[in-house]
Design goal:
The chain has 369 residues and is mostly beta strands. It is built from 3 helices and 32 strands. 4% of the residues lie in helices and 49% in strands.
Length: 369
């Protein structure tokens, strides 16, 4: 039974903490943890990176530290394993990037670049794509260091994603434009730079659906667009419903932080700083559910079945929802600060949350649900 006095003393999130482990090596308090990912095959291994200028590999069952990735001089905002889990890449805000070989726990490649916005592994090869505040996107082959550069368009490149077939990539920019590039030829395949096809705010995220037929954008202007990757046409647009901020201070309150397509059920979900999760039917273009949260949503993840969706919220709680009924199936407590990133293991046994309180928590999904 919940203890009202305990809840009042330490807060509901701590009092109802249902995490299995808390990884505390990032030193908590002022050292927010910005990113977390689970190993693709060894699903009890995770990596996290934070404001302490370090990344760690650790065991989600025991919270044991297995590798400290040091050498960074700024906050680590990207830390993830390659396609088969043999390599780990870590990158900080200042643009220092390192790649580690897990078999030996040794750094095998590094490069010092400029202010970084995002990074991602190629889905089929040992290749890194990295977007910069300069607007350029670099593609590096690891560990040879062979380089290809996609030019700047005079503004920050805010987001990027690689098509599942590995042949093209989409980049979202600060000025609201979106461009799809051929990774082999470095040529623009499709561009959305003007008028209704472009956003009126920075593009916070871009993501492909499972087979790469469509991609979804998420923008600070409160709109999400669905783009057919073959035709290069914007086939649908969706918006946050209360797109009338009451003041200049609230102008970012409609920002969509993340969007994800559910191909199995033809759904689009996006999370907004207006405190709502929106789920749309892509066939009818009608809203299915608008699910209110206590605070802004920072990340969403569909489960493998496509029937459930996880949300990460600025109130410090992760939640699992039925994607069609809107029922909250479970809440994951424990964090004392905003949830900045979440990750699910491929076997769907573990949910990990990285928080502004400087800790990472692991939750046993199947036990809790």
């Amino acid at each position: 039974m919940e203890d009202p006095e305990l809840i009042e003393e330490i807060g509901i999130n701590q009092a109802l903490d249902n995490s299995k482990q808390t990884f505390e090596e990032h030193n908590g308090d002022e050292n927010e943890v910005y990113c977390v990912n689970v190993h693709p095959t060894q699903t009890t291994l995770a990596v996290s990176g934070g404001k302490d200028d370090k990344a760690y590999i650790w065991n989600v069952e025991t919270a044991e530290k297995l590798l400290e990735c040091s050498g960074h001089k700024d906050s680590v905002v990207f830390a993830d394993f390659n396609k088969d889990g043999t390599l780990l890449a870590t990158a900080d805000l200042g643009g220092f990037i390192q790649v580690w070989k897990l078999e030996t726990n040794q750094q095998i490649w590094s490069i010092d670049s400029s202010d970084l916005e995002w990074a991602t592994w190629h889905p089929l090869a040992n290749v890194l794509l990295v977007g910069f505040a300069s607007g350029e996107v670099y593609m590096w082959k690891v560990p040879s260091g062979d380089t290809k550069v996609f030019p700047s368009h005079s503004c920050r490149c805010m987001s990027g994603a690689i098509h599942p077939d590995g042949k093209t990539a989409v980049f979202g920019y600060e000025d609201g434009s979106v461009r799809i590039y051929d990774l082999k030829t470095s040529q623009i395949v499709h561009a959305f730079t003007k008028g209704r096809d472009s956003h009126n705010g920075e593009v916070n995220s871009v993501s492909f659906d499972q087979d790469g037929t469509n991609l979804a954008t998420a923008s600070s202007d409160g709109w999400s667009k669905i783009i057919n990757t073959s035709t290069g046409k914007v086939v649908a647009t969706y918006k946050v419903t209360n797109t009338s901020p009451s003041s200049e201070d609230d102008e970012n309150s409609v920002s969509i932080e993340c969007a994800s397509i559910n191909s199995r059920f033809n759904l689009l979900a996006f999370g907004s700083l207006d405190n709502n999760l929106y789920i749309w039917n892509l066939r009818t273009k009608q809203i299915v559910k608008k699910i209110e949260h206590p605070d802004g949503i920072t990340k969403i993840l569909w489960d493998g079945s496509g029937s459930k969706i996880f949300t990460a919220c600025l109130d410090g709680i992760c939640r699992l929802w039925n994607g069609r009924s809107g029922e909250c199936l479970h809440s994951f407590f424990g964090a004392e600060g905003s949830i900045l990133d979440i990750s699910i293991s491929k076997d769907e046994k573990w949910l990990l949350s990285a928080a502004a309180d400087g800790n990472v928590r692991s939750y046993a999904i199947q036990e809790e649900t």
